[in-house]
Predict the structure.
Amino acid sequence: MYFDPKILLLISVVVFFALIASLSCLWILSRQKKRFIAGRYRDLALIPLNSQDADASAQALATQRVLRERLNELEKSERSSYRTRVNNLILRSGLKYNYQRYIINSLIVFVSSFFLIFLLSKILLIAILVSLLLGAVGQNMYLSFLFKRRQKQFTADFAGALDIIVRGVTVGLSINESMKAVAYEAQGPVSEEFRRIVDGQAMGLDFEDVLEDAIHRMPTAEFRFFSIVMQIQRQTGGSMAKTLADLSALLRGRKEMRDKIMALSSEAKSSAFIIGCLPLFVTGILFLMSPDFLDPLLNQTIGQVMIGAGLALMLIGMFVMRAMINFKF
């Protein structure tokens, strides 16, 4: 079967330069993220304070050191083996099964999808590849979806839980009694996590260990702020009600900023979704209306090369657009 080598060479050159450009964009974005994180660490860590009170400056620097050490510990705890990451994902999703059940579910998905795809396509290689992909990635995507939904619900209700604690401390209740009120009066993930904290303290566990376990189950920035504030408050003292009230106001401001960012970036996300799905949609419509029209593209070598190059460019473009509009805050 004949095809023009010049066209193949041109397509290869275009794909090569597109890949280089995409990788360069991703590298630049990752470097900007690392510089931003490093700058935040410098802001939160050992920055000299312009204060005339030496004791206040020393106490603030000590608080900043505790904060930096705590953030470093939380960052290191996220690096673990695959089995540990799977167990963490199961725990954070709110489901009640273990790693062995995860493996069994993956095998069930692989076997069932293999027979279904093989019966529909009659192509063994495609059935094996797609089944492996679904068995390895499908359950992870489902658990990630459950975790993100649970995390979003927790973040939405957490500021209200802090207000309950602030009101309890203001009227004279202890912090433990105020958290118990949140555990039994709130709903959803907030109630579950605070109930585990209260039960852990009732069993005699150390308060810092209980908070570490809670952050491990719900690693949101808001909950980490709360844990850091509680631990620093226990070490340095001060007005608990005022500190938690300020934290509640900060979290509400973060939520307003998050909603604003989501609203401003929704148009870009919709455009990325449409651009990514439109070629596949048009190809499917053409295949249904006139299958013979796509025969040169599907049955000739140059057409197959063009399909591969187009899919590669689409995937690279989708990853680059996702990196540009995926805001972390």
